Amino acid sequence: MAMRNPWKPGVYARLPWSAFAALVGAVGGVVGSVAVLVVSNGKPISDWTVQPTVYLSIISTLTNLMVHYALAQGVTIAWWTRALKPDTKISHLHQYWETGNSLLASLKIGRNFNLVALASIIVAISPVNGPLLQRASRVAVVAEKGTIAISVGMASQLPYGYTGFVEGRGYVPAFYNPIFTPIVNAYSDRLNIKINNTGCTGTCTSIVAGAGFAVSCSSYESTFNANPIMQPAGQPFNTSQPLMAEGVLAFQSSFLWYAGAPGNISLNVEYKPAPGCAGRLIVRNCTLSPAIVRYKVSIDGNASTISLPANSSIYDDEIISTYNVTETYTPGSYTTYGGLFLALANRFNSWTNMRFAGAIGYDVTTSGAVANQYVQPNTTSGAESMTCGLAFTDPTDNLIDNARELMFRTAVAAANSSNVRSVPAQQEATIAVYQSHYMYLGLASLFTTLAIILVVPTFIGYWYLGRNVSMSPIETAKAFNAPLLRNEDSNAEADHLIDNLGHIGVRYGVILTGAGNDGLLTKQGVSQSYADISGRRLEIAPPEYVVNPQKGWEFGG
Q1: C-alpha dihedral (287, 292, 296, 302), degrees to nearest 10
Q2: What are φ and ψ of residue 193, in 5° steps?
Q3: DSSP, residue by residue, 475-538
């Protein structure tokens, strides 16, 4: 049969494109791993729909597959190029095949160690890059600071009638407006102020404009005198004098409001600052007027809450503008600020009264919590109170701060969609980010790169081959001139051989041979030459010439 496949060696003609593409892909896998770790380092986990470790796992798997494929192609080329050399022995070919396909064989080869064995060992170890890359990306919690834009809703002015109702001829606030009641309850219970959809993901500080108070205060000193009026000797004691009938105030805190100035809330404070039956009485009068102010606020984005800084006061609020509130009342009318007054008065109005009771000293009566909170320590024992020992500290600033907080809560609660503003904020967030550990990346890349470098030499000499070769048993059998394939083109590729011979049936088993028989057996158009050996021989042959081997049989060559 005429030769149909000429020998065509050459650098480009025989270039193993798929194997080299696999090596280039493996190099790309190393670059891809570096890119994933560099890009993800320091990035919030919320920015990644798929975790970096998933990408790294896919990349390492594909990289290892490509390296193994390239090695398989390299072993094939190394086997055939070794077969081309004049000093080749059958043992050399077997060692190339065995070490290229078995890690154990590569480790046991001993003094016959070769390049294929080395490449096989390193490629077998290279999948360690997978666990190493998984360790290269971890989640860490870090503090992050920066400027962001947040959305905050706060009413600039309270809506008409928002806080309460007035009753009676004096139009005195009597009840809260039902929409204001939860605000008062939350304030009394010290609940956090809820605010949603701000865009803050950590702790944010900002300045927000909203309804507030402008405060003005004045103070002066008066006199305190709890000494009774003594009668001349021999005259009966005057028990109807005011000190015995009514007593004298040693402390008083009172919030006031009246319908004639419906936007203003007054705070009056009187307190006796030092022990003694006679001395100074400090008087402070403050007016809280409606205003639009800029609050310094703190927002907890994780809890969706807003608050005034703990160390701030009403004097830190920047007044943008003040305005007057004009309302006309009838019994049952709504009031915008009257409910605020009512909540403050119910909580903070308080007094302490001292009344001379004769020989036993002084009776002391109190109302409300504030007097007890601001009485000076060590002045409340029975002996001290009976001898004018009571003394108090100034509650004014604290009471104003409480009024400010209640107004702030109300401004937040009264906001609607038209009151939402975008404002800059300083955010300090504790966030989970991906953190890359480049030592593990370096080790993974080292194993992969070493595997690639050692696979490349297995392709040396590919340009001497005259066809695309494989380790197909059909192609190698043809190279050894197997009788069943002897008449086919000896430079045919495996696919060509299969196309021509793939329809022939074969079986592995025992062929019976006879002495002096060197004839040709023809079956199905294929010539078959059998060796002249008496006895039995194992081989692959057409099934009609093959029988099953039996236990104990021995075979010739």
Answers
A1: 120
A2: -90, 115
A3: HHHHHTT-GGGTTS-TT--HHHHHHHHTTS--EEEEEEE-TT---EEEETTEEEE----SEEEE
- For residue 531, CA distances in Å to 103, 182, 275, 528, 554 come to 37, 107, 133, 10, 16
Instruction: Look up residue 155 and give its DSSP letter.
Output: -
Please choose, from the candidates 70, 66, 92, 67, the residue with its C-alpha nearest in 3D space to the C-alpha of residue 79.
Answer: 92
Could you tell me if 291 and 323 are in contact, meaning their C-beta atoms sit under 8 angstroms apart?
Answer: yes
The beta strand positions in 248-312, using DSSP E, are 248-256, 265-271, 278-300, 305-307
Q: For residue range 417-450, what is the model confidence (pLDDT) as tens digits?
A: 999 999 999 999 888 899 999 999 999 999 999 9
Distance of CA 430 to the CA centre of its chain: 9
Amino acid at 391: A
Amino acid identity of residue 212, one-letter, is G
Q: What is the pLDDT of residues 58-104, one digit of tens each?
A: 999 999 999 999 999 999 999 999 999 999 999 888 988 988 888 89
d(CA 199, CA 214): 30
535-541 and 526-529: which strand pairing? Answer: unpaired
DSSP 8-state assignment for residue 169: T
